[in-house]
Write a structure and sequence with these properties.
Elements (H helix, E strand, L loop, with lengths): L2 H7 L8 E4 L11 H22 L4 H20 E4 L19 H32 L1
Antiparallel strand pairs: 1-2
Helix pairs in contact: 2-4, 3-4
Length: 134
């Protein structure tokens, strides 16, 4: 945190996003069928790629990787970051605002949201398939 950020934002803080910790309550049944098919195709491709990646590994290495990946999926299911996109810096987020710390927080939340998105797609795949089976 720079001196300008600390000194100037104390008086007038910018809007900050937040990360909520709860179950994924996305109602996938209300999505159009085309979006559901797209998510299932992307998710099955990701699961196939994951299996293809891990198969040639030794057992212990594969188990360590799969344990870490399971933790990533749990994190993707329970953590929902939502940045305040109005406060992402100057020129639409291209340039950092040196006078605000809150835009750094929002940039991190946006990065974290993008990091968790593939895990959400992989989980939504099973939820949509379960909905179709029911």
């Amino acid at each position: 945190m720079g001196l300008f950020e600390w000194w100037l934002e104390r008086k007038n803080p910018g809007p900050q996003g937040q990360a909520k910790l709860n179950r994924d309550k996305t109602n996938l049944a209300q999505w159009p069928l085309g979006w559901q098919v797209l998510v299932v195709v992307l998710g099955l491709a990701a699961w196939t790629g994951l299996i293809y990646l891990v198969l040639p590994w030794e057992i212990l290495s594969a188990l360590k990787f799969l344990l870490g990946f399971a933790l990533y999926l749990v994190l993707s299911y329970f953590v929902h970051p939502s940045p305040a996109t109005r406060n992402m810096g100057w020129m639409g987020g291209v340039m950092d605002n040196p006078f605000r710390f809150s835009d750094d927080v929002n940039r991190f939340l946006l990065f974290f949201q993008a990091f968790l998105f593939p895990g959400k797609i992989m989980l939504w795949t099973f939820r949509i398939l379960w909905y179709w089976i029911k």
